[in-house]
Specification:
- The complex is a heterodimer of chains A (315) and B (134).
- Chain A is α/β, with parallel strands linked by helices and 315 residues long.
- Helices cover 46% and strands 14% of the residues of chain A.
- Chain B starts with 6 loop residues before the first strand and ends in a 5-residue tail after the last helix.
- Helices cover 40% and strands 19% of the residues of chain B.
- The chains are: A alpha/beta (315), B alpha/beta (134).
- Chains A and B meet through helix 2, strand 3 and strand 4 of A and helix 1, strand 2 and helix 2 of B.
């Protein structure tokens, strides 16, 4: 495919167009993902998550600055939410990163969630592959502003960073399941605000008596506007990376990710097949009618339809 | 299930901090189901074109109230041609005198929307004029 050749040759317009095709589920996107796969696996993937307004984009801006000093190439995927009402979105993360627009070794792409609820979009994984094949050394994924349970990022990043702000909850919040279970590094951003030390201590205490893990997530304070703690953050990312590589945990991590990929893809293929097979068919319509008339229940209908259709069809 | 969303770059060019208008526009386009990437204020034509390419947008909407539209807007379309990205629809809005419209359109600005424009008219114009890519 020409677009893949161009992309591998470093043509950023081809990269940008290929990303759109993945995002739009263009008919050619499957072929692109298949062909690109052999060229992937070199990039290190950093996930940044945290509540809205905690400073994720501004932190990424500072990280890009530091990473570029080491002459590494960077790709950024910044995800913002799609409106469930209109399907539209405002993608405003890159406002904080404008300093790097003219740097040819930085590629930033804004994406909207398009119906996904895990904090990133369904197409994110594919776009990571594209940036990886394009030759990016580091790929940073910024999630939407999250609440307590959007944890898909952990499955998609090698290092996951949780960005919080001072006094955003007491120690019970930290004990809870969900978002507090996924970080490899915790950042207390806007540490110039009162309470940063209290939050840091709270989180440290909880992390100490939580499950015994080989990697104990560090908790660091940052202030983005005058670059306090950002160098330390980049050092911690590198430390976590060498930890993963030394123990060869990264291979295990990636194997788990591929397993998850395959499962999700199978689910999606089957889901699409079911939909294409049954939609607008007389049988389907009749079942719905029956359920409407209370002559049948939805579960029995689902089972009956599944038993009657052939799912081995290729699309 | 192809889900082709219209992607729009809402841009502020030059030394101009008036962003009320562009925010109203961004909101209206979002409500019309489009994906709107906002650049923030004080961008150069070079930055706008580079962002448009990276974001693979269908439309660039530039807001300018500073009076420098005759210098900055043609620069954007010139750079787009240089990058072979002039299939992107470019529209402008803000404080722009009527007598400058003809020159701007000659330079490749498809339409100029001044204050008093109904957002519905802009949405209609975009939908009718974007170049459909395969």
């Amino acid at each position: 495919m020409q677009i893949i050749k161009d992309l591998l040759d470093g043509d950023r317009k081809a990269l940008a167009r290929a990303i759109s095709m993945i995002d739009n589920e263009d008919p050619q996107s499957k072929e692109i993902l298949k062909e690109i796969f052999p060229y992937t696996g070199k990039a290190f993937i950093v996930g940044i998550t945290g509540p809205p307004g905690s400073g994720k984009s501004s932190l990424i801006d500072r990280l890009i600055h530091l990473i570029r000093k080491e002459d590494l190439k960077i790709g950024v995927i910044a995800v913002d939410p799609t409106s469930p009402f209109t399907g539209g979105s405002i993608l405003g993360d890159r406002i904080r990163m404008h300093e790097h627009v003219s740097d040819k070794n930085v590629f930033i792409r804004s994406m909207s969630t398009r119906g996904s609820f895990g904090g990133i979009s369904n197409a994110t994984r594919g776009v990571v592959h594209l940036l990886d094949a394009f030759g990016k050394d580091i790929v940073i994924i910024e999630t939407v502003g999250v609440g307590q349970s959007e944890v898909d990022i952990a499955q998609n990043a090698d290092t996951t960073i949780l960005v919080l702000t001072p006094l955003s909850g007491d120690s019970v919040q930290i004990l809870k399941a969900g978002i507090m279970e996924i970080p490899d590094i915790v950042v207390i951003n806007k540490a110039d605000l009162p309470g940063a030390g209290i939050s840091q201590a709270d989180i440290n205490i909880m992390l100490d008596f939580k499950n015994k893990r080989t990697w104990r997530p560090p908790v660091i304070q940052t202030i983005t506007f005058n670059d306090v703690g950002t160098q330390k953050l980049w050092e911690e990312i590198k430390k976590h990376r060498s930890f993963l590589e030394k123990e060869d945990l990264i291979t295990k991590l990636r194997a788990e990710r591929y397993q998850n990929d395959v499962l999700l893809l199978m689910e999606k293929i089957i889901k699409d097949r079911i939909w294409y097979t049954v939609r607008e068919t007389a049988v389907f319509e009749k079942m719905i009618q029956k359920i409407n008339n209370k002559e049948m229940d939805p579960l029995s209908a689902a089972q009956e339809i599944l038993n009657s259709i052939d799912l081995t069809n290729h699309e | 299930m192809i889900d082709k969303k219209i992607r729009v770059l809402a841009a502020k060019v030059g030394l101009d901090g008036h962003d009320r208008g562009i925010k109203v526009i961004a909101q209206a386009l979002k409500d019309a189901g489009m994906e709107v990437i906002y650049t923030g204020i004080r961008q150069t034509p070079e930055q706008i074109v580079e962002i448009a390419i990276q974001e693979d947008v269908d439309v660039i909407g530039i807001s300018i109230l500073s009076g420098a539209h005759l210098q900055l807007l043609p620069r954007v379309t010139e750079l787009l041609r240089k990058e072979e990205a002039d299939d992107i629809l470019v529209v402008a809005g803000g404080v722009i005198p009527q007598e400058d419209f003809a020159f701007l359109k000659e330079c490749g600005i498809k339409e100029v929307f001044t204050s008093g424009t109904l957002t519905g008219d802009l949405i209609k114009f975009i939908k009718e004029n974007i170049i459909k890519r395969e």
